[in-house]
């Protein structure tokens, strides 16, 4: 893990396709391994990333793949942050506010935000000038 004065950053831009979501996950896995982030942190942030990216592909771009996803990863001694930016259809305002209850298991969809909230400690979302930005923060355990 980075020391108190270190900060590590990495970015990757991919097409908005389910296949390229795998590239984002692989890049995040490599980043977490390189900086020796705890396995449970790496797993949680990867689950949140994949869920968010798949939702952008499905709902933001309508599965057309005619857009892109920009991922930015950052870590320091206290947390790891994954940000996704896209120019797809924005989420309805307020969807990320407050805790979302997990729907019943017989529902076919609707679990995405609850999964992301269960995996990370903080989620911020904003849309400005056609750019959607989702920021997910996972706190690192104290050494």
Structure commentary:
The protein is of the alpha+beta class and 143 residues long. The protein has helices at 18-34, 39-60, 112-119; strands at 8-15, 68-75, 79-86, 122-128, 131-139. The chain is built from 3 helices and 5 strands; from the N terminus they run βααββαββ. A 5-stranded antiparallel β-sheet has the order 1-2-3-5-4, with helices on one face. The mean pLDDT is 88.
Topology:
Blueprint: E1 8-15, H1 18-34, H2 39-60, E2 68-75, E3 79-86, H3 112-119, E4 122-128, E5 131-139
Antiparallel strand pairs: 1-2, 2-3, 3-5, 4-5
Helix pairs in contact: 1-2, 2-3
Find the structural class using helix and strand composition.
alpha+beta
Spell out the helices and strands N to C: EHHEEHEE
Distance between the termini: 10 Å
Q: Compute the number of helices.
A: 3
The CATH homologous superfamily is named Histidine kinase-like ATPase, C-terminal domain
Give the strand content: 25-35%
CATH class: Alpha Beta
Tally of separate domains: 1
Q: How confident is the prediction overall: mean pLDDT? A: 88
Number of strands: 5
Q: Which architecture per CATH?
A: 2-Layer Sandwich
- Helical fraction equals 25-40%
């Amino acid at each position: 893990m980075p020391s108190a004065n270190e900060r590590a950053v990495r970015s990757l831009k991919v097409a908005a396709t389910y296949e390229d979501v795998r590239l984002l996950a692989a890049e995040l896995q490599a980043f977490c391994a390189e900086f020796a982030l705890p396995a449970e942190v790496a797993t949680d942030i990867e689950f949140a990333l994949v869920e968010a990216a798949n939702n952008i592909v499905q709902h933001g771009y309508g599965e057309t793949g005619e857009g892109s996803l920009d991922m930015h990863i950052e870590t320091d001694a206290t947390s790891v942050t994954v940000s996704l930016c896209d120019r797809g259809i924005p989420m309805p305002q307020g969807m990320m506010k407050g805790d979302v209850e997990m729907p019943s298991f017989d529902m076919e969809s609707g679990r995405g935000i609850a999964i992301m909230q269960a995996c990370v400690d903080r989620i911020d979302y904003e849309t400005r000038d056609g750019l959607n930005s989702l920021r997910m923060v996972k706190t690192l355990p104290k050494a």
